[in-house]
Amino acid sequence: MKQYDAKNILNIALAGHAGCGKTSLAESMLYLAKASDRFGSVNDGNTVLDYDAEEIKRHVSLMTAVAPLEWKNTKINIIDTPGLFDFEGGVSEGMRAADSALIVVSGKDGVGVGTEKAVKAANKQNIAKIFFVNGVCDENARFYRVFEDLKSTFGPAVCPVVVPFIEDGKAEVYVNLFEYRAYRYEKGHATPCDMPDMGDRLEGLREAIKEAVAETSEEMLDKFLEGEEFTPEEIAVGVSQGVKDGSICPVFCGDAHNTFAIDMFLNSLIWLAPKADTHDEVGVDPNGDPVEISVSADGAAAAVVFKTVSDPFVGKLSYIKAVSGKISSDVPVINMRTGEPVRITKVLTVRGKKQEDSQYIGAGDIGAIPKLNDVKTGDTLCSPLRKVTLEGISYNVSSYSRAIKPKTKGDEDKVAQAVKKIMEEDPTIKYFHNHETHQMLVYGMGEQHLDVLIAKIKSKYNVDAELGVPKVAYRETIRK
Known about the structure:
By secondary structure, the chain is an alpha+beta fold. The chain has 11 helices and 27 strands. The chain has helices spanning 22-32, 53-58, 89-97, 113-125, 143-154, 200-214, 218-225, 232-245, 262-272, 412-425, 447-461; strands at residues 9-16, 65-70, 75-80, 100-106, 128-134, 158-160, 162-167, 170-176, 181-186, 189-193, 249-254, 281-284, 290-293, 302-311, 315-324, 326-327, 333-335, 341-342, 347-351, 354-358, 361-362, 366-370, 380-382, 400-406, 430-434, 439-444, 465-468. A hairpin with a 5-residue loop joins β12 (281-284) and β13 (290-293).
């Protein structure tokens, strides 16, 4: 893959409630952009982004995964995050690397708790939010009910862009409200068609766009309240600006399984979603003073490690987002947490589990570096000429604890070492040895989280372990 400037890079985190089709949507986007030579299925276990053995077995995303694609001279880095609440640490990692959040909503189930948590995570990172209602071809899907649900939950900022025309229970025609054009989809191919008769619903949708545009500025609000019509240019500029500053959340729809309206969605992302060069950051210098870091290829190197994968055979792989300058084997960098120089042997472009060598990771782009043994998730790698610490990753506290022990006596040390290795790639897991009860304790986000931990200890490190009930250390005290 060729190198792209930050002004032609989109970093998009996919988030949402479990089972809404995030990985399927990513698969559809990759397939349409010819970044994947086959259309994978979550149920078949052959998708690009769900490549871990446990993900394939459980048919669900358990960790953050990255895959880039090229669409109309723009590089889109897709960051697929887990929907299960036990693995929300992956959402924190994905949002840290992204410049916008693509929040996927089921066309059948509508807004869920995971949808609200995804919006909250995007707001915490202060990045743009884009909704995609997936699976509208399902006979049980109710797009317009879901759209009203979005508006009532997240307010007038919710703005329709692409909507389906449903005829005889089928959603084969999609209307682009900005272009005011309709397209019919058959076997994945789109052909322009006449605007369908949507009656009063079309006017209601256009009114929703005007409401959203009115929220972007005082001038637009005054014009809206006085009943004046917005020009097409005002609507396009207002929505584009509103998405970038977070005051508008556009809504798209389609069906990932048959790629309906996915091309229309990709075309709109190119001009709607904020590019990487617009996401400047504020770091901290060694004296604790704030330093503004511009996303510029000419600046001093600065990058944040947002994810770590630890594999007993391949070794350690650190995923980074370059904020400034270029990260390569030729550029000296230091780890601001340790103060030590970091030796980079090569940099990689990663698509799921596939890796290819790259010359460098440029400002605004995402890539990976192998075998950085003293580097952890959240660390800042920067040029020694401009020492700066970037914002790390904030995880929720793990509060679910269980005792862990080996099934074979004498393997306690092997279990402890395996847990510590897995902690490198999942910092939400905590390990503690209680010397009073003589138990090894592990903390996670929930029961399923620790169940996956036990499975990974077996599959990756060939150690059989089991969970048990933690003992309570009772103490005597003076009563009177």
